[in-house]
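User: Predict the complex with 2'-deoxycytidine-5'-monophosphate.
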Amino acid sequence: MAFTIAIDGPAAAGKGTISKAIARELGFAHLDTGLIYRAVGAKVLAGSDPLKAANSLSAEDLEADNLRTPEVAQAASKAAVIAEVRAALVQFQRSFARRAGGAVLDGRDIGTVICPEAEVKLFVTASAEVRAQRRHAELTEKGHALSFDEVLADVKARDDRDMSRAEAPLKPAEDAVLIDTSDLAIDEAITAALQVIHAAR
Ligand code: DC
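Assistant: Here is the predicted structure with 2'-deoxycytidine-5'-monophosphate placed in the model:
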């Protein structure tokens, strides 16, 4: 049976960690849709046209090892503004969402555009400062030498672009349940998400 859980929110709010944990808990498949846009962004940085990149994505492109860098994140956010790029990626995401056995998709427009019919919609957010702190710690651990202020500027630039674009801007669906993770430990955020899901099943 199909059951879709749509999880949207800004960069570094905890969507990825929450999505993976609930997919594991429920035995659902998980798609990090940001990774698809990052794969397009990485191809653009390597010289490709954004639409050609979106139309020719392969499974290996999603496994490239540079997808988690700040440069690729910005390139992804820029490519994600282009309506034709978004359109090229819709069908894959929709089929994934309705696969048998249940699916969790996290991104920016899952509850609003990709799966407005999702059985559960969550909007996971946190203050820009908390999100920048988390991303900064993550990047430092991976050996990136970026200051907190640089990471904060990066997070804010991406928020602005993702929220103000004409096509599928980042915003909560009207019927999304909001989870603010600013003051929550990760297990508390996962528990809050699971409570909403169990109430809907
Ligand atoms: O979730 P992320 O940080 O990996 O996403 C990278 C960028 O991709 C994000 O800044 C905007 C874009 N994106 C999008 O426009 N729509 C999605 N569903 C997911 C990501």
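The pocket of 2'-deoxycytidine-5'-monophosphate is lined by residues 11, 33-34, 37-38, 73, 76-77, 80, 107-109, 158, 162 (CB under 6 Å).
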